């Protein structure tokens, strides 16, 4: 949202300037007219290729490159400041939230004499005597979660059969007792069967629940520790507790609904090893993903299939089947892989051990961006697989690489215009039409939906996936910056894309999607870093391109540009980054004082009691109470939404006039 | 000290193993015997060059490379742990130090209504109400410092003339009133002259002193804030105070004698710009230092001199002068530059704005290491200036660079053996003889020393310069690692160097040098990083060398090695680095509790009152009191030292049996 808005702010002046200055400069040459017989198209008349080698006109491109960089950096600096202050304002805004008082403690060392809970209590009573309030240990509730899930399913079936019985009470419904999807087995009375099953599961569940609370084996060495004041929590989250920096690790607790419970108990050494493994895996995924795909594609062609499964031979001899396999299957295999790629990356990020959904999303986005950069941007410019490129880059000298890429950039302009229209514009149109969710909904409705609750679930629009959509939009930003100085005619297409994206995502976020969590713009430093990366790439490529065009006297003038850009990034990081990882003591203190004055009798313990309980321990009623609580607050929201689902209604930020301006993308 | 000890621990097993395994493997080939007519020496018989191309024997070198890496990493891991725990133990040891209670606050924002001092007091009284004790603002005392210095000089002259008068009271001594070094001007009575001068200076000083304390213009926006408890100081140093992360910056106060006062008031934006400028300057210094040197060398030869200064012509026609200029001057110009290099780097670091002497030393050491790496190591292997290398590296492909360097490495073994003997062994011998300080002392004694105080000052051995000596020793470590798998015969030479260095520096540090400050091993992470750099360089070069020797099937086995080494570095950094930048709350709390129990009536305010006063404000007597205070504690030191100067006697660390084990190098 804010992202696309920033991009628009950056790109509108760049587009105007680039069209006004560079198009005439390029157009009034006639280099390409003389060599028209080669593969140049009309668009190239307006691009840098139309300028003769060694011309003094390259100074215009060079100057514009400086102008674009400074403009982008200026907007970025301003936006970083705005986002940081909005984030602090949001955190400081009057609403009380459990995560303001709570710190997540991990890697609590084992103690032979005390339980984890006692140990944590004693530790914080000693070292934060004036501020410690209470704590909530983390239970290993995987098994319980499964049981609860199963019981819910059974309850759903029971509801279905009871409904059936109500409608037609002449005959008690029956079902098949066991086995594969209830397709075979002995016929039994369905209502009795499911009632008894639910009874059994309830008993199991109760036993497991008791087990968890009594058996210390189920207690993980992590806890949510709450403090009397925000000041106390801010101090504890930002300091090191003990001599060993790998035990008693404290950090801000994520929002309760943002916690990824499974990763809370990973020990420190294991974390670093997991990160190493995933870095290597990402490298292989990016550069060698084509290997398994080719393997599957090979298996998926006729000969491969016939070899692997000879019994299919009669089938594959049929003409239609044969042409389908030969024509579509290889493409579909690749498409399926690309559709599942964000999920694969998310699984990789989960394996790395991040503890909040927002961090997982951010990490997946970084991985996805690298993949897109290598396999879409580079692979389109220099044809060949990523692996082949890697090989050729290793064998090229450091100053050859930007040249190789730079030279082919102007020639690919037409391709990228098509790409923007097919992938970008169509993608946005698809987003507003939501065709796939519509189809999925109707499929689900016909085959799976049995009760009202099922229908509600099938209609759930889900939440926007930052990890999958932001890197894709970043690609267009990169294209815009790279072509701004080279083929300015590409810019209006990107501008239209951003305009559409702004309108559509604004609508979707306000009216369609649920908000899974509130990260308070924690993703911004990542976005900023990727924009800087795009800037540096565009500068390097321009240097490469100019140096092949015998503009030898002007090219060295460009070299300070990447140095300054990287320095600018460091400056911004020092200046603003801490707003995204730390909570200033002054703010905490002011809020504490205000609250004490306003609500002197506030029972904070009661407020925090159930905030960080594992979701399976929360009762249904409890859940409803919270959501109706939030419903009440929604009345203050500035923009009335058209949504009907009352699941996870978002909290408005109350800062700007634009609603939820901090939502991802 | 500890550094050299670590290196010995790493190198003794490597040397033994390398000599036992690789020398026989290399020696039992006869490749070089067949091509004896080329430029190979006897040493090459024992090196990797003696193995025929494509031989299976390369597996031995490969295996040893893994063994060396794992051994080095194992020792490093253990040492990092030991150093970290020694540091924490040192910080936690029973002695009370002012810096444990004190935090340095910088970038205090200006306030129209309050003075800096009031503003600081109010801020901390509000935000750290239970812990704030007092603060000491920082004055801009540059001018006062100059005055004090001048008065001291005058006092010295006065002492000298009074001594002269005492010895020969028949005649009052005279001196020349003004001008260049007192060589011309009117003759006046010396004692009267200097007495009046001192009077004038004293008055100026008193006025300046009053000026500083009353005029708010002299107060810099920085202060040393002291807290009632270590816990309070630890909390304040590790947290962010306000919303703006560039104002009210808090960090641990360095030891009082470690503070670099001039840099305390540099604003944030200026800091980042200074760093950018110095990074660029370092790049040019490293790669283009030869340009100004050549210019001076050109001017310093006969023709240049005659052109630049024609009036010298009769002089340069004399044979002796001519041959001196032609033979020595160019070499001496380079030597003088190299002698002044650490000073130049230190000035650069000071410009970057670090606030403690130890940080300045660490930063200079990093710069010096980069310079040595490029201009000694690389320049010796690939002959040519650094600038020529840079040019050739840019034009080579990424996998060609290790090959180019790797191939020439075995050929340079003889050169480096000579280098180790000439520069390393002789340097150590020079260190123990302290020839230059001896000569300087006698020169000073003959020409400059006038009073007893002057003699004491001339005898001052100075303190060990971490920034100049550590990177030089690191170079030998790099050589050892690089040649361990290639020409093992080089290792005994390096081992002798480290052995000598250990004995000599141990003696020098205990008996000769003064300790300027106590950094409590804060330099260790830097040393660790440089050792890891050396490891990775040695691995890359081995990969390059093996890939040219047609050992194609074995080379890829080496690729995981640098990846694992870099990961190991990250692991160590996460595991131990925080011990060098943070002070755990638990430790602080334990120490506070102990102290409260032992000395319930301690007047902390009186203890801290003058701790962080600018040195020019401290009186002479005050200074003496402190040093006699420390003298008393010295009685507990385990090793009696032979030093006589009572300046800055070090504080023993009381941890191991080795005295001051944490001293640099």
From TrEMBL, chains A, B:
Region (Disordered): 622-665
Keyword RNA-binding: no
Domain CSC1/OSCA1-like cytosolic: 100-263
Membrane topology: Multi-pass membrane protein
GO MF, one annotated term: calcium-activated cation channel activity
Principal cellular location given in the protein's record: membrane
Biased composition (Polar residues): 642-652
Keywords: Ion channel, Ion transport, Membrane, Transmembrane, Transmembrane helix, Transport
Record-annotated CSC1/OSCA1-like N-terminal transmembrane domain positions: 5-79
Coiled-coil ranges (or none): none
Compartmental location: Membrane
GO cellular component: plasma membrane
Family membership noted in the UniProt record: Belongs to the CSC1 (TC 1.A.17) family.
Protein name: Calcium permeable stress-gated cation channel 1-like isoform X1
Species name: Canna indica (Indian-shot)
């Amino acid at each position: 949202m804010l992202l696309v808005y920033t991009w628009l702010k950056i790109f509108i002046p760049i587009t105007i300037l680039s069209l006004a200055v560079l198009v005439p400069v390029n157009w009034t040459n006639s280099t390409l007219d003389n060599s028209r017989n080669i593969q140049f198209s009309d668009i190239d008349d307006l691009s840098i290729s139309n300028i003769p080698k060694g011309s003094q006109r390259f100074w215009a491109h060079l100057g514009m490159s400086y102008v674009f960089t400074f403009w982008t950096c200026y907007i970025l600096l301003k936006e970083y400041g705005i986002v940081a202050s909005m984030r602090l304002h949001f955190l400081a805004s009057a609403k009380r939230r459990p995560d303001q008082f709570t710190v997540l403690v991990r890697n609590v060392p084992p103690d032979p004499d005390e339980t984890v809970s006692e140990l944590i209590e004693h530790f914080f009573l000693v070292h934060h005597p004036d501020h410690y309030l209470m704590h909530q240990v983390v239970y290993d509730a995987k098994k319980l979660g499964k049981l609860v899930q199963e019981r819910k399913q059974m309850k759903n079936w029971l509801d279905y059969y009871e409904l059936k019985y109500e409608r037609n009470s002449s005959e008690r419904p029956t079902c098949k007792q066991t086995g594969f999807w209830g397709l075979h087995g002995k016929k039994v009375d369905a209502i009795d069967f499911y009632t008894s099953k639910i009874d059994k599961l309830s008993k199991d569940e109760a036993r497991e629940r008791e087990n968890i609370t009594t058996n210390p084996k189920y207690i993980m060495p992590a806890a949510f520790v709450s403090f009397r004041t925000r000041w106390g929590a801010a101090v504890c989250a930002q300091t090191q507790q003990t001599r060993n920096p790998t035990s008693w690790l404290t950090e801000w607790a994520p929002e309760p609904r943002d916690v990824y419970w499974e990763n809370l108990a990973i020990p420190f050494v294991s974390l670093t090893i997991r990160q190493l493994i995933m870095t290597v895996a990402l490298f292989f995924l990016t550069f060698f993903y084509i290997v398994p795909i080719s393997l599957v594609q090979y298996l998926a062609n006729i000969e491969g299939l016939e070899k692997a499964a000879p019994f299919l031979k009669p089938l594959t001899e049929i003409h239609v089947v044969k042409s389908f396999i030969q024509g579509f299957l290889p493409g579909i295999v690749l498409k399926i892989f690309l559709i599942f790629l964000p999920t694969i990356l998310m699984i990789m990020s989960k394996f790395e051990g991040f503890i909040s959904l927002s961090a997982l999303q951010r990490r997946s986005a970084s991985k996805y961006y690298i993949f897109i950069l290598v396999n879409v941007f580079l692979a389109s410019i220099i044809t060949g697989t990523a692996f082949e490129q890697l090989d050729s880059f290793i064998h090229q000298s450091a100053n050859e690489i930007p040249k190789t890429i730079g030279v082919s950039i102007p020639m690919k302009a037409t391709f990228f215009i098509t790409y923007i229209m097919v992938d970008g514009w169509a993608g946005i149109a698809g987003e507003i039409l939501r065709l796939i969710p519509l189809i999925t909904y109707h499929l689900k409705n016909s085959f799976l939906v049995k009760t009202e609750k099922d229908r509600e679930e099938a209609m759930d629009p889900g939440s926007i996936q930052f990890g999958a959509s932001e890197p894709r939009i970043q690609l267009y930003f990169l294209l815009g910056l790279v072509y701004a100085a080279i083929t300015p005619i590409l810019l209006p297409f990107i501008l239209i894309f951003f305009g559409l994206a702004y309108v559509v995502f604004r609508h979707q976020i306000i009216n369609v999607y649920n908000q899974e969590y509130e990260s308070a713009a924690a993703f911004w430093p990542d976005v900023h870093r990727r924009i800087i990366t795009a800037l540096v790439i565009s500068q390097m490529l321009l240097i490469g391109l100019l140096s092949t065009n015998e503009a030898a006297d002007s090219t060295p003038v460009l070299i300070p540009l990447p140095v300054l850009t990287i320095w600018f990034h460091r400056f911004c990081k020092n200046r603003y980054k801490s707003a995204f990882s730390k909570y200033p003591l002054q703010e905490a203190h002011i809020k504490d004082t205000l609250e004490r004055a306003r609500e002197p009798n506030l029972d904070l313990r009661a407020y925090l009691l159930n905030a960080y309980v594992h979701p399976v321990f929360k009762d249904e009623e409890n859940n409803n109470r919270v959501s109706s609580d939030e419903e009440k607050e929604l009345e203050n929201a500035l923009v009335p939404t058209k949504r009907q689902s009352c699941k996870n209604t978002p909290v408005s930020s109350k800062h700007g006039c634009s609603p939820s301006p901090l939502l991802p993308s």
